[in-house]
Design brief:
Blueprint: E1 2-10, H1 14-25, E2 32-36, E3 50-52, H2 54-57, H3 63-76, E4 82-93, E5 96-108, H4 110-123, E6 127-130, E7 132-140, E8 143-150, E9 155-165, H5 172-177, E10 204-209
Parallel strand pairs: 1-2, 1-9, 2-6, 4-10
Antiparallel strand pairs: 3-5, 4-5, 7-8, 8-9
The structure holds flavin-adenine dinucleotide (FAD).
The site of flavin-adenine dinucleotide (FAD) has 26 residues, from α1, β2, β3 and β7.
Length: 212
């Protein structure tokens, strides 16, 4: 089977989903398709789910980028996705309190936030396929062709005029098209995350570092 679209976005994380919504909301004149290898929209999540407040960003980011980030935050971070408002950051190293500083951030429910963006994308008329893994992409004519495997063992090809690689490391789009030279082993670290459930009313985030 061959599917044709104007824009193919691979990866439905924050980058891909936001771009898809931007296109459908801002009168992009063409078909938008978004695929993601996860079967469920943005789950499981590997992320601390901490987002900066506008105040925290302002002194550190140049004005043009700040305005873009501000728009993104305001369009995306609705009150119902905020799990906790953080005001302080405490740093503990080897069991000793080292510092406590103001740190206005939000702990968010990132999966719910992304789900909301993707619902806007679907309602805006884009095609969204979850459980769809891009295997390789290549230049074809003046566009691109990607081979996709679906979660049920089927495969299909998507032809697109424009291709967006929002599939993070190790990006298939990047690797297949040789956009960057990839990473060396020493550029990488292993990251894991675990989720604690409950009602947390504290307004303090704690960073703990020790040998363990
Ligand atoms: C442990 C950890 C903690 C973090 N904590 C924070 C934090 O507290 N605050 C913060 O702001 N950021 C945090 N980050 C960073 C944040 O998660 C990333 O910056 C952000 O998710 C990047 O968004 P993205 O859309 O570029 O990529 P991703 O969120 O990685 O999304 C990429 C998407 O592409 C899909 N995909 C990949 N390959 C394919 C393929 N071949 N075919 C189809 N789909 C594909 C994936 O399933 C995924 O849904 C953390 C990251 C880690 C690892």
């Amino acid at each position: 089977m061959v599917i044709k679209t104007d824009v193919l976005i691979i990866g439905g994380g924050p980058a891909g989903s936001y771009l898809a919504r931007y296109l459908v909301r801002n009168g992009f004149n063409g078909d938008v398709m978004l695929i993601d290898k996860k079967s469920v929209i943005y789950a499981p999540i590997i992320c601390g789910e901490l987002l900066p407040s506008e105040d925290l960003l302002k002194p550190w980011i140049n004005r043009d980028l700040y305005n873009v980030l501000l728009t993104t935050l305001r369009e995306t971070l609705r009150r119902e996705f905020i799990v906790n408002e953080i005001r302080w950051l405490r740093l503990v190293i080897n069991n000793r309190d080292i510092a406590r500083m103001p740190f206005r951030t939000y702990v968010i429910d990132k999966a719910a936030m992304i789900r909301n963006i993707i619902e806007d994308v679907i309602n805006g008329g884009a095609k969204v396929h979850f459980g769809a893994t891009a295997i390789k992409c290549a230049v074809k004519g003046d566009g691109y062709e990607c081979l996709v495997h679906d979660k049920d063992g089927g495969e299909y090809v998507i032809n697109a005029r424009a291709l967006i690689g929002a599939d993070a490391y190790p990006s298939i789009v990047d690797l297949s098209l040789g956009i960057t030279k990839g990473f060396r082993a020493e550029d990488l670290i292993i990251a894991t995350s675990t989720r604690a459930r409950g009602k947390y009313l504290d307004d303090e985030a704690v960073i703990v570092m020790d040998r363990g």
